[in-house]
Amino acid sequence: MSDASINASTAQSVGRQDEASFGDYFALLKPRVMSLVVFTALVGLLAAPVPVHLVIGFCAILFIAIGGGASGALNMWWDADIDKVMKRTKGRPIPAGKVEAGEALALGLALSGLSVIMLGLATNIFAGAFLAFTIFFYAVVYTMWLKRSTPQNIVIGGAAGAFPPVIGWIAATGTMSIEPWLMFALTFMWTPPHFWALALFMRTDYDDAGVPMLTVTHGRRATRVHILVYTALLSLLAVGTAFSGIGGPIYLAVALVLNALFLRGAWRIWRRDEDMSEADNFKVERGFFKLSLLYLFLHFGAILVEALLKPYGLGGWS
Amino acid sequence: MSLRQTHELHKRRYGRNLGVALTLAAFIVIVFGLTVVKVTRGDFEPPRGEVQN
After folding, report:
1. What digits encode the pLDDT tens for the residues A210-238?
2. Contact residues, chain A, for B19 at CB < 8 Å
3. Nearest by CB: B34 against A20, A22, A55
């Protein structure tokens, strides 16, 4: 290649706004969501009553994370049009003009295939198949179908984000039982209040994009009621989990404190109206959203601690 | 001005190529490690009955 051609291609690429860096492709995998997937899948894997070889456990978590990332890339490919409109998402690689939509599709499909096959080979076919189902659920059922058609999008779509601990458990045991589904239910019930609080203070974002969030279709008052109801149900589930095979006294203490705080936050959101929220720039709603992040992290953290203490005869109720 | 002047774009390309190379190298190490663990644990050994036949 001559210098002239290098210069020509340089000029061309500069004309195409920006040529993507490695980090831009990595950003397609939604690293922050991936960190949640890694953590919850790890808890599912370690809470399982079957010891897993270190290398196999590492590979299982890695390929579950790659599968989660792949579904994120497919989501960005499909949602590029609405990502461009929303403040929160317009900096993503496709709307920012750094990566072509087709590249995101190719990356998503390639990593989906790779992660499913490798997880199947590293652990068992059941885990691989369940990962494939999760990617399908997130990319097709949630992103392509529900997200733009029903205000219950977050409720049902939340299931996709709740599957990783189940996959982690299956990777370790090769079988299914009630405990991973309790972890699933925890994330599943947590997702709606978490996103509805976000929708309350992100105000026009979802309106502008035409996404039928509850705030848009049923109004902001109904959203506040929904947050309270879901938080109350979540609290029952979260505290009840303490008395299952993955719970224990440490988990119970954590769950009691966090659920009291979470219920208090939901109660305060329910009591407020729009004027009050606007007066302090949605302070309570923002606080509830931040608490929700800590809420999930600490619940899974407590399950992990109980599991790690079990070999020493300390974890759980025994 | 030198004809071989390095543009910021070249740095980005280099970073991207290096990232892909390291990712592929890591993948090779992972598959190799996984294979060693699987073989040494006897995951690929046929059931005892089949060996006798």
Report:
1. 778 888 888 889 999 999 999 999 999 99
2. 22, 25-26
3. A55
Flag whether pLDDT at B1 surpasses 70. no
- Residue among A3, A21, A53 minimizing CB distance to B12: A21
**Partner-chain contact A55 B12, CB within 8 Å:** no
Q: Are A127 and A153 in contact (CB under 8 A)?
A: no
Burial class, A257, CB count within 10 angstroms (exposed 0-12 / middle 13-18 / buried 19+):
exposed
Instruction: Give Cα A32 to chain centroid, integer Å.
Output: 8
> In chain A, what are the domain boundaries?
26-176, 177-318
pTM of the model: 0.86
How distant is the Cα of A86 from the closest Cα of chain B, in angstroms?
28
Query: Could you report the per-residue pLDDT of A119-178, keeping only the tens digit for each?
Result: 999 999 999 999 999 999 999 999 999 888 888 888 888 888 999 999 999 999 999 999
Nearest to B15 among A10, A21, A121 (CB): A21
What is the ipTM for the molecules in this complex?
Answer: 0.78
d(CA A32, CA A88) in angstroms, rounded, equals 14
Residue B40 C-alpha, separation from nearest chain A C-alpha, in angstroms: 12
CATH code assigned to A26-176: 1.10.357.140
> A284 and A272 in contact (C-beta within 8 Å)?
yes
Q: How far apart are CA A157 and CA A161, in angstroms?
A: 8
User: Which of A42, A310, A35, A58 minimizes the C-alpha distance to A180?
Assistant: A42
Determine the residue among B7, B8, B10, B27 to mutate to test chain A binding: the one whose Cβ has the most chain A Cβ atoms within 10 Å.
B7
